[in-house]
Design brief:
This protein has a single domain, classed as L-arginine/glycine Amidinotransferase, Chain A (5-stranded Propeller). The chain is globular, with a radius of gyration of 18 Å. Helices cover 23% and strands 22% of the residues. The protein is of the alpha/beta class. Bound molecules: citrulline. Citrulline (CIR) binds next to loops. Its EC number is 3.5.3.6. This is arginine deiminase. It is an enzyme of class 3 (hydrolase).
């Protein structure tokens, strides 16, 4: 039996699912792509190739090996994108909660059935159909659970809006003792610089009391201010529009003082080191072209 345990985003990681770029299949057409950054690269002729992305994920895996983290990989589905393990399910406390993901990505969860079979079935939760929720929008943070959503009445027109109010309410009911705080995120189907695809594309906690944040990722200033009040302005590393586009907020914590980051994120990596953290720098710029980065590629199962 696999005993899951996740209370927050940064405690020492023991076991994780890491997605895979193997057998990713042919480059999607513009119509098949489901995020604006992938579309941008398809149009520019710079969409990433499998071999480069496999290398980047191998580098990530090596960091996990270095820190003795147990790594699970999805079973390969032929010609299918399985990089972003984060979104297909998520763990809070000892529960494995299946996401209700974009139909285009539905098969990704089948590849983890071998892992789900190792979890006590009473701990595996399947939300009802009206619930839309993806793991990139969900962040347990001790007494809080942060959730990214989109509250616009045009929700159904946005393929980039992945978590709805039913999703937020579902988590509130499942965890009545937690403070569930939802954040209304900016969405664009055509401009990745104005699209917070998931909460982890514009915010993520780091260390014990810090965070990375892009103010304009939030539709409501009050939501941004909630985080400023909770963390303290001096503890938040503010990123600009271009840095959000490069996905600076999507690094990944192995511990409160160990962060895996992209090697070109110089301004962020220096700030992390200045705050006493070890930064494991790896190349991840090719995967970034699909509007996801390090946090998006992982699904933590056990943290201390
Ligand atoms: N948590 C995340 O932000 N995941 C990235 C998912 C990117 C993928 N291209 C998608 O649109 O679903």
């Amino acid at each position: 039996m696999l005993d899951l345990h996740i209370q927050n985003e940064t405690s020492r990681l023991k076991a994780v699912v890491l997605g895979t770029a193997e057998s990713i299949g042919p480059e999607p057409t513009l119509e098949e792509a489901y995020d604006p950054k992938s579309k941008e690269h398809i149009l520019a002729g710079t969409y990433p190739v499998e071999a480069d992305m496999v290398k980047e994920m191998d580098a990530f895996n090596k960091v996990f090996e270095k820190y003795n983290v147990e790594v699970y990989r999805p079973k390969l589905i032929t010609d299918y994108n399985q990089i972003f393990a984060r979104d297909i399910a998520f763990v809070i406390e000892d529960l494995f909660i299946k996401a209700n993901i974009l139909p285009e990505r539905e098969q990704e969860l089948d590849a983890l059935q071998y892992l789900i079979d190792q979890i006590d079935p009473s701990k595996v939760i399947t939300p009802p159909e009206e619930v839309h929720i993806e793991g990139g929008d969900v962040m347990p943070w001790n007494d809080h659970i942060f959730i990214g959503t989109y509250k616009g009445s045009d929700y159904k027109n946005y393929i980039t809006a992945r978590t709805n109010q039913y999703g937020v309410d579902f988590i509130k009911e499942l965890f009545p003792n937690k403070i569930v705080k939802e954040f209304d995120l900016v969405k664009s189907k055509i401009e990745p610089r104005d699209n917070a695809l998931h909460l982890d594309c514009c915010f993520q906690p780091i260390g014990k009391d810090k965070g990375i944040i892009h103010k304009s990722g939030f539709r409501e200033e009050g939501d941004y201010m909630y985080l400023v009040d909770l963390f303290g302005k001096e503890n938040l590393f503010h990123i600009d529009r271009e840095e959000m586009y490069h996905m600076y907020s999507n690094v990944f914590s192995i511990d409160t003082d160990v962060v895996v980051s992209e090697r070109n994120f110089t301004r962020l990596n220096n700030w992390l080191r200045d705050h006493g953290m070890t930064v494991e720098e790896i190349p991840y710029a090719e995967i970034s072209k699909q509007e996801g980065l390090l946090r998006c590629s992982t699904m933590p199962l056990i943290r201390e």
